[in-house]
Design a protein that fits this description.
By secondary structure, the chain is mainly β. The chain is built from 1 helix and 8 strands.
């Protein structure tokens, strides 16, 4: 997986693992026991995620085609499905609890 540095205005940069291959996107965070603090996983293209088989709760950030935040789902427990809506094109997943406040409409920098 490709490693990126992403950020939002007024926040520290985050490490980001970009799941570019279909198999990496399908696997996502399954099988992991967690992610390092400050690390996210990018799934693109993607408009919904599930947490079946997950070992930890996640925060999910849905982005539109311009990398603007359109929805944030916090503390999503295992065995759930979260939809980003018709405008969602990308998803950032993080282990629950460390992400700062994320206002809708703000652009995430550092993504292709």
């Amino acid at each position: 997986m490709k490693e990126l540095q992403v950020s939002i205005p007024g926040s520290d940069k985050w490490n980001c693992l970009a799941a570019e291959k279909l198999q990496d996107r399908m696997r996502g965070l399954l099988g992991r026991i967690g992610l390092k603090h400050g690390t996210t996983m990018l799934l693109a293209p993607c408009s919904s995620v599930h947490t079946f088989g997950m070992k930890f709760a996640i925060d999910v950030i849905f982005l539109d085609k311009d990398n603007r935040i359109i929805k944030v789902a916090r503390n999503v427990p295992k065995n759930r499905i979260v939809y980003g809506g018709i405008r969602a094109k990308k998803v950032l997943e993080a282990e629950s609890g460390w992400l700062p406040d994320l206002p809708l409409g703000i652009k995430v920098a550092g993504l292709q």
